[in-house]
Design goal:
single chain, 215 residues, mainly beta, 5-stranded antiparallel beta sheet, 15 strands, globular
Length: 215
């Protein structure tokens, strides 16, 4: 089963409910049940013509993407696919689990993408199935690169496979450009594919204080 859903827990959709033309419109996800569990692809929602340039964490607003039981991490010849740069669709027939591997990205352009990670970005925990966390790191594109622009109003930021019944949650900082070339950012915005009761209201209040925009 493969479904596109509006993320139940999205700071963006709450904070921006009264500003439909704002730059950051929250998160959506796809949910694909398979032999390895459930694979979620997480998307950032943007206005037409806008682009996403970076996903980051810093010592004030750290980045974390996690799950309760850990991420499925496939390997090929002992190597892990940490980012969309590594994805090789031609390998799916040889190692079926690779199609559902967990990785980060911006847009979907496997092999040949120019997405980069900041020097020293630590994947060691993520490679063993643990949370992806950084207080001093980012993955990013040079502004103007085609894969950073929204397609149908969204930009992919990662794929994560977890056990059936588990969820994927995160808090990230986002940066990009509007269609007119001006900059935007969304700081400390959070998502969860399965929200806890009452979390929507709490995150709405927190997000209202955290989100900043630049024009």
């Amino acid at each position: 089963m493969f479904n596109m859903k509006l993320l139940s827990l999205t700071v963006g959709s709450l904070v921006l409910a009264s500003t439909a033309t704002a730059d950051f419109g929250g998160f959506t996800f796809t949910e694909n049940a398979n032999a390895y569990g459930v694979t979620y692809q997480i998307f950032v929602e943007l206005d037409a013509g806008d682009e996403l340039n970076a996903v980051s964490g810093n010592d004030v607003d750290s980045l974390v993407i996690g799950s309760d039981s850990g991420f499925m991490q496939a390997t090929m010849f002992g190597a892990h696919w940490n980012t969309i740069n590594d994805v090789n669709e031609g390998a799916f027939g040889f190692v079926p689990s690779l199609e559902y591997d967990s990785w980060i990205g911006i847009g979907y352009a496997p092999q040949g993408t120019d997405m980069a990670t900041s020097p020293g970005f630590d994947f060691s925990g993520f490679e063993t199935g643990n949370n992806l966390e950084t207080a001093n790191g980012a993955w990013y594109l040079t502004p103007g690169m085609a894969q950073g622009y929204e397609v149908g109003g969204s930009v992919l930021i990662g794929q994560f496979t977890v056990a059936a019944g588990d969820h994927v949650y995160g808090t990230v900082n986002l940066q990009g450009r509007n269609a007119d070339g001006s900059a935007w950012d969304a700081i400390g915005v959070s998502f969860d594919t399965i929200p806890a009761p009452g979390a929507l209201a709490l995150l709405g209040l927190a997000g209202l204080a955290a989100r900043r925009r630049r024009k």
